Amino acid sequence: MKSAIGIIAFLFFAILGVEVFAADIAVMVDGSRVVFHDQEPVIIDGRTLVPVRGVFEALGFDVSWNENLRAVVMENEDYDVRIPIDSANFTTNGTSHSLDVPAQIIGGRTLIPLRQPLESVGVSVDWNAAAREVVVESGVTDAQQPPAWRLSVDEFEQRVFVLANNERAAYGLPPLLWQDRIAGAARLHSRDMRDNDFLDHTGSDGSDVSERLAREGVTSWISWSENVAMGHTSPEDLVRSWMDSPGHRGNILGNNRYLGVGVAFEAESGRAFSTVKFATLSLSPIFDSDDGLFFDFDDLFDDLFDMFR
User: Fold this and answer.
1) Rounded distance, CA 285 to CA 291, Å?
2) What pLDDT, in 10s, does the model give residues 260-281?
3) What is the pTM for the complete model shown?
4) Are strands 258-265 and 286-288 parallel, antiparallel or unpaired?
5) Of 280, 282, 294, which Cα lies nearest the Cα of 180?
6) Sheet holding 42-44, edge to edge
7) 200 — alpha (psi -120 to 50), left (phi > 0) or beta?
8) Number of Cβ atoms within 10 Å of the Cβ of 295
9) For 12, which of 99, 103, 111, 307 is 20 to 30 Å away at the CA?
């Protein structure tokens, strides 16, 4: 459906005589490449438009959609940015600013020109023509990153998800797909490790990874693997430590197609107990808590290929 929407959007702009084409462009945020899962940046009338969510979430913003305003909203402790669709203006903390190109919905995603919105929140944007990269620098060093316990569970988990896929992109690998039930199993294992103060792939009740997946309804799989950790102060520190470990790095860069991240914070010390589960699901569909029947024909053909190659 999303690909059909993208084709319709392309034809719409083509009929209007507006130049639209996919841009072989990378977006780097503080040195890490942003992974766009289902809509790449495009160039319209000589201006690069980028999916807003991946970039602003990489900078620590919460991104949401306001249907009444028909606007995408980005918020953190200091800024409230609102960008209406098809408008040449946006606001940051109530102050109006102009855009070179209006924000637009393409392929079911909101795309914006990055420079003006990012500069309005004190973030620099540059263009590396030789590498065809949009370079975004927040000016925040690792030492200034908030400790893990100042991030919400969801923020920490989603940041690990983004960073893991950034590492895969650096090796030319396709992104892993988020799966809620796998994440649920990961989250429960992290809570178990926190509550019982241990670090292991075997649960306090003796369960292994496959048993914990089955408890969340994931019973049809071809393969799985798991990374666990405790004590890291940020998602960046966590993923960096895994990439420095051959076994953990192999799981992140492996052939599984789905992942789920689960974290639990210790109340007094703020220590983060983290679990990432990776899996390739079999041909049997499972039921997902948000999306209903989980069944993707593209994935099925890929899984068949993996089984017989």
Assistant:
1) 12
2) 999 988 876 777 899 999 999 8
3) 0.49
4) unpaired
5) 294
6) 20-22, 42-44, 47-51, 109-112, 104-106
7) beta
8) 15
9) 99
